[in-house]
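Subject: Protein record for review, amino acid sequence with backbone structure tokens
Why sent: The fold of this protein is of interest and is recorded here as tokens.
Enclosed: The protein record, placed directly beneath this head.
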Amino acid sequence: MKKIIYRKIAKDFTIFFSFALILVGLIVWTMQAINFFDLVSEDGHGIKIYFLFSIFNLPKIIHRILPFVYFISIFYIIISYESKNEFNILWINGVNKISFANQIIFFSFILMFLQILNGSLISPKSQYQARSLLKNSDMDFFSSLLKEGKFINVVKGLTIFIDKKNNDNTYSDVYLDDSTKNGSKIIYAKKGVLISPNKEKILRLYNGQIINKKENDKINVFKFEQINIDLSNFSTNTITAPKIQERNTLALINCLYPGNFLKIKEKITCEQSTLKDMKQELIKRIYKPIYIPLLTIISCFLFVNSIKNNQVKKRNIIFITGFFILILSEASLRYALSSDFNFKLYFSLPILIIIFTYLMFLKIARNV
């Protein structure tokens, strides 16, 4: 009988948790995907790159929303069973409330390690793959960005302006500004066309002139009948260098603690200005999931109080407490490395709260 009830509770929780995680994940993913559309509309990447880039960001979204969805799920399942008096079947069949809570807490530790695995391995790797897509992209949506009367600067160091786009996919009165710190170069052509030999992006210009202005204000003017501007020589405006959150966890550890026994292929630049961000990223990946068991213990207080008159008040207090813990886990991370005291406090506080909360739970559960 006990096993049947346990399986039912586990099944109900798994279904609700999975559905909530997918639903919230899709909502957040859709909102981010809308923001990522700049990759197409402004940076010239294709729809395929945009879609794959959005997909590769799913593990990061799951890592961010999982603690919140988990707390909502376990809170809902417990109050659902408790309001229907279904937990009484467990208690009547001799199931101890402490033993039942311990099994839920044990599951939360498994989920905590899965969260660490996602944050330390899966999420950084998927984000790195997403960044690699942008780096290797040939901006196959570039031609659609060339519009009449609009300045286009989807590549660094080059601004393009066309006066008219013709029906045969050619351009009339094309202006290019290829200015650098050492001087400026203005290119004008009466006609231009975008071609793609060997998957390269080349802007072929006809009947124009090049105006070069050097640092000494000397101006040179060259006329041409035909010239090719290789757009592959210019890099995209999109940030293609991997960010800290996209780096391998072991690479970050190697950077912060050189000379350890870890040997990996990936090498990163360990600048002094980024060490703090690297430490914060490691804390977020490895230590922050410890709040998941704490949320579980807090939720277990829902079924230890037998006074029905205080049910609504008790639920509100527990929900507010859990929500405060979620806020605390996010806010405290920002100040964890501001001083040695804050660092020690950040590491010790959740452990102390877990111990204190669990002992309080044991005391109340034994007296019920």
Q: What stands out?
A: The chain has twelve helices and six strands. Residues 302 and 323 are 15 Å apart (CA to CA).
